[in-house]
Amino acid sequence: MIRLSDAIVIAATKLRTHRIRTTITIILSSLLFAALIAAIIITTGVTKSVAVFNNQGLNNRYLVWAQADNPLFGGVLSTKEFITLAQQKGKDLIIAKQAEAKKLGIDYNAGNEPSATLTESMSGQNSVHVNFQSYAAIEAMQEYVKQHPSPDLNELKQAAANYHPIGFYSSIMAGLSNGNMSIMSNGSENFTPTDDQRVSLLFPGQTSLMVDDSHLTQPFILPGTTTNGSNIPLIVSYSTAEGLLGLPKLPSNASTKDHYDRIQQVYRQTTNNAVTVTTCYRNSVSQQQIDQAISQADEIARNKSNKDYQKPSLIYGLPAANSCNKATIISDKRTAAEKKTQAAQDQFDATFGQVVVPVQQKLTFQVVGLSPSTSNSNTTFSDLLSSIVGSSLTDGSDVIPADLLDKMSTATSVKSTLLADNSNPLAVANPNYYVEFSNANDARRFITDKSCTTRMEGTCASPGRLFQLTASGNNSIALQDLQQKIASVLGLATIGVVVLAVIIMTSMIGRTVADGRRETAVFRALGAKRSDIVAIYAVYTLCLIILIAIISLAVGLGAAYGLDAYYGQDATLQAKLLFDAVNTNLTFRFFSINIALLGVVVVIIVISGLFSMVIPTLRNIRRNPIQDMREE
Amino acid sequence: MEQTNTETSVANDKRPIVVIDKVVRSYKVKKQTIPAINGISLSINEGEFVVLNGSSGSGKSTLLQLIGGLDKPDSGNITIDGVDIKKLSDHKLSLFRGKTIGFVFQFFYLQPFLRLGRNIEVPGMFTRLKRKERKLRVKQLAEIVGLSDRLNHFPAELSGGQIQRAAIVRALLNQPKILLADEPTGNLDSTNSAAIIDLFEQIRQQFGTTIIVATHDPNIAARADRIITLKDGAII
Ligand SMILES: Nc1ncnc2c1ncn2[C@@H]1O[C@H](COP(=O)(O)OP(=O)(O)OP(=O)(O)O)[C@@H](O)[C@H]1O
Ligand SMILES: [Mg+2]
Predict the structure, then answer these.
(1) Binding site membership of B60 for ligand 1 (Cβ less than 6 Å)
(2) Would you call B88 an interface residue with chain A, using a CB distance cutoff of 8 Å?
């Protein structure tokens, strides 16, 4: 066969023969492949950058949130069995109350006792419901729950055993069910909190207060923070911390840089100073007495000139605003008999589930950790990023690290306040657990195999599916899915580009070969074998391909580099903002070269080029050279 | 015959180098069969200078192509230098063509983007002739046709006569035993034509090459050892 060097000499004449056509083909094909190369470099860069930022916080961990259903869910409460139980409890309660009232010597009118069940007439049909207002119903629920305990941690461990779990962590919602907490701003209590303030358990915008395992909280703890032993350690979001520091909200048109500077400022200030917030917790009785003190003072003031007005026999007063003490008693003119009756009534109420003793406690929280705000984003880019990544453990809740809570000198009393059980079993949330896995696959398999999904049908009771399970804490699993999706999209794009490029190159090479028919015929007359002709066109195609590969690489790299140079800095800020990665010098880059992947693209270019050559060349060498020579 | 009987001893032996035996080659055009070569038998000796003559469409080019192995007969045998070329595979036939046959065309067919030297080298590329040897032969051949100073020129920079001389020495690069030329002077003026005819003569004398030329040119016919006239695919 013809020598390579000779084939190159002849192939070069073909490149020069159809300059415009060749140039257009090279440019079109190069642009196609360049776009592919740029896409690969950019997605590699983005994926890598996301992964780097993802190592922040809880990201890059594979956590599955698990919670057993409340055994009362799933239609249990409307079963005949439960209605019967509730009705029985109602009867028993009246008997017990009557006996207790008799013993304590107080009046009790069974007629006022709320019925355990209510009958409702709906479209001619009577249906019986549990009356949640009745203590009998609560007792019935308590008994039912005792008989049907929720699956516990051990059962969770059993369920997860086959999926290689590497940790089980608990996350308990702080109770505060019988009262509320309000911030003592400037150290003094606001005795008339607005409804809004009452409803919120803690700081504005936060919906719950959690006590979480240190394995979950550790990534968010600020370096070097210590508490004095009586402050309750707390992890808050950046935006909450911003509020606690008294920093004014940034205007909506603030730049990325402004936002970034702000979170840096928040980070610095919370790291360098002990940021504390003092609250006053009051249970319902304590709050009731405070409310009473206010309304009584009001009433007395209003009736100052009314001679007929008779002051209440028991008058409450407000405690010192900075004390968080219970209401004072200004005057108590009740007779001994009245007091005795009240005491007996209190004892009676307490026996049947009512809170009668005021409880209040000054609770000082200290910020020991910061978690990303739900959204710092002010651009579509960061919106996009935050939907991909972003650590969601602390979404909407402030978190107390369990280990630090245990180290407090006042741990017991704080826990009894924060983790008080709710007497209504329906309102009790089962403990949240997090099961950690070392990879997304295990986590995903665990969820698909073991999660109870259709709660209303009561399938949680179906064997082996005892817990609600969701990927949680971060989007590592989603991120992996996204990476796979990107890979498949890139794969499709590659196919598209290859098909287009092959069409372009085939038609171009086809025409060149067709135009070279007479030359082929002459060469054949001069002794060229078919293989020589194939070799010449193969070398010609290779020259084209090498040019295309070089140009595509140059243009693709250039485009990705340009994007990186142009947007990289802003993206870094955005990403830092999003991940609140203040104490890092991570950069977000759109540019990352995966040599293996680019090698694959080059191989694809070569193969598609050679493929483009096959058909025209085969058709050409099958031709009769004489015929081609005759065509003038 | 006397005048060709020069230094070449082979010519004296009158060894037949081209033997054509009852060859038929017809073309089918729209259900009509045109017998381009209609049962020709013919023998040409080594070193002979033969002119194929005859009116247009008489089958001259077809016969040349059959001899050169570019085409195959429908029936009959063609033996070139002792080889029955009908039996050769396409690959072997190409090798045979490269080594044994030199082709010259009416329209020259030089590659326009190759310099003259390179153009002449082309047949050597297909026979894998060593680069050094190729250059040497190009140099020698160029001297014969007076193109030594033109080897670095592109065909477009040369005259028709120069191009055809280059095309002829290109055909000689592999030192073929047979030179086939189809209307080599068809595109040249009389001066250039005369030069080409002289060149054939010189080639034959210098290399003992068998030369078969299809032409209407009476000036060539006048210098031939033998004139074979075709009519409707047959010798008359
Ligand atoms: N490829 C082909 N297909 C169909 N017919 C052909 C083909 N080649 C040659 N012929 C026919 O065969 C006959 C002989 O053609 P050929 O080219 O050999 O003639 P020629 O003597 O060389 O003519 P000219 O002097 O015009 O070159 C003609 O009738 C021609 O039309
Ligand atoms: Mg002809």
Answers:
(1) yes
(2) no
Using DSSP, state whether A166 is helix, strand or coil.
Answer: strand
- Is position B176 within any domain? yes
Give me the CATH number covering residue B60: 3.40.50.300
Find out whether the beta carbon of B58 lies less than 6 Å from any atom of ligand 1. yes
- Token duo for residue B41: 């038998």
Task: Report the number of distinct structural domains present in chain A.
Answer: 4
Q: How far apart are CA A285 and CA B204, in angstroms?
A: 131
How far is it, in rounded angstroms, from Cα A373 to Cα A350?
43
> In this prediction, what percent of chain A has a pLDDT beyond 90?
25
Residue B6 scores a pLDDT above 60: no
- The Å distance, Cα B30 to ligand 2 centre, comes to 21
pLDDT at A280 over 50: yes
Tell me how far apart the alpha carbons of residues A430 and A452 are, in angstroms, rounded to a whole number: 15
- The tokens of A481 are what? 């899915």
Give the model's pLDDT for residue B24: 94
Interface residue B97 vs chain A (CB under 8 A) = yes
Q: What confidence tier does B124 reach under pLDDT thresholds 50, 70, 90?
A: very high
Beta strands in A196-253 (DSSP E): 208-212, 232-237
Looking at the partner chain, which of B70, B98, B171 has a beta carbon nearest the beta carbon of A625?
A: B70
Between CA B93 and CA A293 the distance in angstroms is 120
From the candidates A16, A526, A531, A626, which should be mutated to test the interface with B, based on the most B CB atoms within 10 A? A526
Question: Residue B150: pLDDT band by 50, 70, 90 thresholds?
Answer: very high
B213 Cβ closer than 6 Å to some ligand 1 atom: no
Q: Partners of A471 in the beta sheet? A: A64
Residues of B in contact with A625 (CB under 8 A): 70
pLDDT digits (tens, 9 = 90+) for A296-324: 999 999 999 988 888 899 999 999 999 99
A13-16: Cβ within 8 A, 24+ apart: A13/B111, A13/B112, A13/B113, A13/B114, A14/A512, A14/A516, A14/A536, A14/A540, A15/A540, A15/A543, A15/A544, A16/B113
Q: Is the CB of B95 inside 8 Å of chain A's CB atoms?
A: yes
A594 & A482 share domain? yes
Residues facing residue B227 across a β-bridge: B51
| Percent residues over pLDDT 70 in chain A | 85
Q: Give me the residue label for tokens 């050769």.
A: B88
- Whose Cα sits closest to atom 29 in ligand 1? B57
Domain of residue B136, residue span: 2-14+44-72+87-235
Do you know the residue count of chain A?
Answer: 632
pLDDT tens for each residue of A385-434:
555 555 555 555 788 999 999 999 888 888 888 877 666 776 666 778 99
Q: Is residue B25 part of a domain?
A: no
Residue A580 buriedness (CB in 10 A; 0-12 / 13-18 / 19+):
buried
Chain A residue with CA closest to B97: the answer is: A527
pTM: 0.63
Closest CA to A67 of A210, A172, A146, A214: A172
Q: Pick from A559, A621, A617, A612: which is nearest to A590 by CA?
A: A559
When divided into structural domains, chain B yields a total of 1
Q: If you count them, how many residues does chain B have?
A: 236
Residues in chain A within 8 Å Cβ distance of B167: none
